[in-house]
Amino acid sequence: xxxxxxxxxxxxxxxxxxxxxxxxxxxxxxxxxxxxxxxxxxxxxxxxxxxxxxxxxxxxxxxxxxxxxxxxxxxxxxxxxxxxxxxxxxxxxxxxxxxxxxxxxxxxxxxxxxxxxxxxxxxxxxxxxxxxxxxxxxxxxxxxxxxxxxxxxxxxxxxxxxxxxxxxxxxxxxxxxxxxxxx
Length: 183
Description:
183 residues; 8 helices
């Protein structure tokens, strides 16, 4: 669908242009609009929504509810891994045969999924696109990894590895690191 100059979306004096094009097929069609101002407003609206989602995810309070030692966490993480693998129909490796880096990954994943508490319903129902949802989840995962690294310095390298992996690029990860050090 192409929005022509005679379309109500292309009206210059309509104050609700952005609101109209944010909903449904109108937003998709506005990307191909013949009116450059409409295309620009749609692009800026999407960027603003993304920034709001990222700020909201960074503002979430993430707490880690864990009193166990690292050795106890190893046993709990392996037990959780074993249950998940069996439920998926896979054969889990024996704990002594696991590489230490794999054990650290299991512990961090166990802590992130089972021991972190946050208000996960805060923005979940307000997302317009899956891009916003994935950005929110990425920021939330980063926050959880920061909390885990602060609580367990032995797992900081694994948390950093996972944070770099979820970053869109190494340049973005480097910029995030510089902004954290500057703050």
